[in-house]
Amino acid sequence: MRELCAWCIKASTRLLRYDKAEPLYLRAVATWQQTLGPHDAALATCLHNLAELYRAQGHYTQAEPLARQALAMRERLFGPDHADVATSLNTLALLYVAQPR
Asked: Which of 9, 64, 88, 91 has a CA between 20 and 30 Å from the CA of residue 99?
């Protein structure tokens, strides 16, 4: 399943086929929630990647809650000083920079 999320982000960024990537992310999120539970690192990564997809499309209201959820999960799983937490913080910052507020 981790390969599915990696493939999704490559498809969305290189080919700009957002319409193809989004349902795959959503399917992966649903599968991980059902099989691994709501607190797994793979789920946090997929939520993060889905947030990135929405950010790239300019769908900031969809991206922000996912980015916040991924950040919270990663902080709980790894602690505040982990590299994945830093990646989530960076994504959230990019979201705020991109938004016309």
From this structure: 9
CB 74 within 8 A of CB 47: no
Judge whether 84 and 40 are in contact, CB under 8 Å.
no
pLDDT in tens, 65-94: 999 999 999 999 999 999 999 999 999 999
Q: Is the pLDDT of residue 37 over 90?
A: no
Domain tally, the chain: 1
- Residue indicated by tokens 């991924």: 70
Query: CA angle 65-24-83, nearest 5°?
Result: 50
Residue 29 belongs to domain spanning = 2-98
Phi, psi of 37 (to 5 degrees): 95, 175
